[in-house]
Amino acid sequence: MSANFEAKKVVVQEIVEKIKASKSVVFVDYNGLTVAEVSELRNKCKKANCEYKVYKNTLVRKAFNELGYDMFDADLNGPTAIAFGADETGAAKAMVAAAKDYENKVVLKSAFVDNAYVDKAGVKALATMPSKEELIAKMLGSMQAPVSNFAGVLSNLVSGIVRVLNGIAQSKEA
Question: Distance from CA of residue 84 to its chain's centroid?
Fold first, then answer.
């Protein structure tokens, strides 16, 4: 086997590992971006806790086929960049923002989230959703609110009883 074939096998394995390690994978068409814009986009992705990479479409297709997914074959045509996200919504948010920032240069294609194909509209919907951490924080906050309200009611009840008893004691002294 040639060295080139072995190198491609290594890249396919790298892509497979990135797909397995990511909670979401978003595909975009990046036609027309300058080198400076690509660098800026990579930095924005790092801040959003995702990784922006460009691989050959055939290698990405081979990686997904190796994992048993063939629904991305139609999307893997033309210049395609991939954002690997550490959470379900981060990569989608970063790529939707990039599509707005670099109008007509970054075009959403599709995504792979929770072992399922997500179309362009689904990617936009994912971008509007809060992240898992934000949802957990909201849920904990809503769970904590009744407990703190109950503690406040108990505190007011106890202080009310103390005031009544104090009033009775003062009236008996007089």
Answer: 9
* pTM of the predicted protein model: 0.72
Determine the longest span between alpha carbons in the chain, in angstroms. Answer: 106
pLDDT at 1 over 70: no
pLDDT tens column, 27-71:
998 888 888 888 898 998 898 888 999 999 999 999 998 988 888
Q: To which H or E segment does residue 172 belong? A: helix 132-173
**Residue length of the chain:** 174
pLDDT grade for 83, boundaries at 50, 70 and 90: very high
First-last CA distance in the chain: 106
Torsion of Cα atoms, 142 then 127 then 131 then 77, to 10°? 160
| Distance, CA of 35 to CA of 104 (rounded, Å) | 16
The type of residue at 22 is S
Nearby residues of 142 by Cβ (< 8 Å), 6 or more positions away: none
Identify residue 11 by its one-letter amino acid code: V
Return phi, psi of residue 55, to 5°.
Answer: -125, 165
Residue 87 has pLDDT above 70, yes or no: yes
Q: Please check whether residue 84 is in contact with residue 91, taking contact to mean a CB–CB distance below 8 angstroms.
A: yes
